[in-house]
Amino acid sequence: MEAAVEPGNLAGVRHIILVLSGKGGVGKSTISTELALALRHAGKKVGILDVDLCGPSIPHMLKVQGQAVHQCDGGWVPVFVDQAQSISLMSVGFLLEKPDEAVVWRGPKKNALIKQFVSDVAWGQLDYLVVDTPPGTSDEHMAAVDALRPFSPLGALVVTTPQAVSVGDVRRELTFCRKVGLRVIGIVENMSGFVCPHCAECTNVFSRGGGEELARHAGVPFLGSVPLDPKLTRSLEEGRDFIQEFPSSPAFPALSSIAEKILNETPI
Ligand SMILES: Nc1ncnc2c1ncn2[C@@H]1O[C@H](COP(=O)(O)OP(=O)(O)OP(=O)(O)O)[C@@H](O)[C@H]1O
Ligand code: SF4
C-alpha cells in the first residue's frame, strides 16, 4: 500500500539524490541543475532542494532568483521553475532579503533550516528530488542525511574534477557515504577536457580519467565525464535550459547519458 501523501513532507517523492563534492567549484550545482533539467526532459517531475546555504546558486541558474516562497496549510510552497510545474525548487536564496546577502549562521541554525526544508515544504508528488549540498562533509550533510533517510530510497551522486587533489577529496566523500550508510549511485567527472568549437578536438585542460579510475577502485559506478562547455557556462549564467536548447553542444551527450543511467538505476 502506498504511503499517504501529506502536504509538507516527502512521502510523495519516489527517489532522492544527494549531490556531493569534496571541493567547492567543481560543478556540483551545475550537475544538480542539469540533471534536474534532463530528468524533466525525460518526462519526470523533479524537485530541487538547495541546502548549499552559504552559496545558493541554483535560483540564479534556473532564473528564478528573487522570487518569494509562500506559506500554505502544509508549510512552504516551493518555487515552480516552469508553467507546467515540472520542476520545483526550494533554496535559502528565496528567504534572503537581498540575493547577495551573506548567510552567517552557526551550525545549529543551519541544521534547523535543513530539517525544516525537509519537513515543512509541500513537495507533493515528485519522481526525483535532487538535493544540492555544500562542498565537503559537514554537520549540514549529517543533518540532511538524518532528515532525508526516512524518505528513502536515498542515494548519493558524487561530483569531482579530474585533478588528483579533487579526487583525493572525493575519497573522503565516499568514506562519508559508507559511514552514514548512503548508497553511492555513481561518480561524475566534470570539467573533463575542453572540446574545441572549431575542430572538435578535445584538450585535457586538467588530467583526465581520475574519476573513472577512482570509481573502479572504490567499486562504485562511473556515470560519465562532462567536458568544459562555454555554452553550458552561458546557459547557467543566463538561466537558460541547456538540455532543451543546445543538444549539439559538447556537454549534452554526457549530461543526457548520466540522466539516462540514473533513470535506469532508479526505475519508477
Ligand atoms: N562542464 C562545465 N562547463 C562549463 N562551465 C562549467 C562546467 N561545470 C561548471 N561550470 C561553471 O563553473 C562554475 C562553478 O560551478 P558550480 O557553481 O556548479 O560549482 P559548485 O561545485 O556547485 O560550487 P560551490 O560548491 O562552491 O557552490 C560555474 O560558473 C559553472 O557555470
Ligand atoms: S584545437 Fe585546433 S582548431 Fe581548435 S583552436 Fe586548437 S588548433 Fe585551432
TrEMBL record:
<feature type="binding site">
    <location>
        <begin position="22"/>
        <end position="29"/>
    </location>
    <ligand>
        <name>ATP</name>
    </ligand>
</feature>
<dbReference type="GO" id="GO:0140663">
    <property type="term" value="F:ATP-dependent FeS chaperone activity"/>
</dbReference>
<keyword id="KW-0408">Iron</keyword>
<keyword id="KW-0547">Nucleotide-binding</keyword>
<comment type="subunit">
    <text>Heterotetramer of 2 NUBP1 and 2 NUBP2 chains. Interacts with KIFC1. Interacts with NUBP1.</text>
</comment>
<keyword id="KW-0963">Cytoplasm</keyword>
<dbReference type="GO" id="GO:0005634">
    <property type="term" value="C:nucleus"/>
</dbReference>
<dbReference type="Pfam" id="PF10609">
    <property type="entry name" value="ParA"/>
</dbReference>
<dbReference type="GO" id="GO:0005930">
    <property type="term" value="C:axoneme"/>
</dbReference>
<dbReference type="InterPro" id="IPR033756">
    <property type="entry name" value="YlxH/NBP35"/>
</dbReference>
<keyword id="KW-0206">Cytoskeleton</keyword>
<dbReference type="GO" id="GO:0005524">
    <property type="term" value="F:ATP binding"/>
</dbReference>
<dbReference type="GO" id="GO:0005829">
    <property type="term" value="C:cytosol"/>
</dbReference>
<dbReference type="GO" id="GO:0016226">
    <property type="term" value="P:iron-sulfur cluster assembly"/>
</dbReference>
<dbReference type="InterPro" id="IPR000808">
    <property type="entry name" value="Mrp-like_CS"/>
</dbReference>
<keyword id="KW-0004">4Fe-4S</keyword>
<keyword id="KW-0411">Iron-sulfur</keyword>
<feature type="binding site">
    <location>
        <position position="196"/>
    </location>
    <ligand>
        <name>[4Fe-4S] cluster</name>
    </ligand>
</feature>
<dbReference type="GO" id="GO:0046872">
    <property type="term" value="F:metal ion binding"/>
</dbReference>
<comment type="function">
    <text>Component of the cytosolic iron-sulfur (Fe/S) protein assembly (CIA) machinery. Required for maturation of extramitochondrial Fe-S proteins. The NUBP1-NUBP2 heterotetramer forms a Fe-S scaffold complex, mediating the de novo assembly of an Fe-S cluster and its transfer to target apoproteins. Negatively regulates cilium formation and structure.</text>
</comment>
<feature type="binding site">
    <location>
        <position position="199"/>
    </location>
    <ligand>
        <name>[4Fe-4S] cluster</name>
    </ligand>
</feature>
<keyword id="KW-0539">Nucleus</keyword>
<comment type="similarity">
    <text>Belongs to the Mrp/NBP35 ATP-binding proteins family. NUBP2/CFD1 subfamily.</text>
</comment>
<dbReference type="InterPro" id="IPR027417">
    <property type="entry name" value="P-loop_NTPase"/>
</dbReference>
<dbReference type="InterPro" id="IPR019591">
    <property type="entry name" value="Mrp/NBP35_ATP-bd"/>
</dbReference>
<keyword id="KW-0067">ATP-binding</keyword>
<dbReference type="GO" id="GO:0005814">
    <property type="term" value="C:centriole"/>
</dbReference>
<dbReference type="GO" id="GO:0005813">
    <property type="term" value="C:centrosome"/>
</dbReference>
<dbReference type="InterPro" id="IPR028600">
    <property type="entry name" value="NUBP2/Cfd1_eukaryotes"/>
</dbReference>
<dbReference type="GO" id="GO:0051539">
    <property type="term" value="F:4 iron, 4 sulfur cluster binding"/>
</dbReference>
<protein>
    <recommendedName>
        <fullName>Cytosolic Fe-S cluster assembly factor NUBP2</fullName>
    </recommendedName>
</protein>
<keyword id="KW-0479">Metal-binding</keyword>
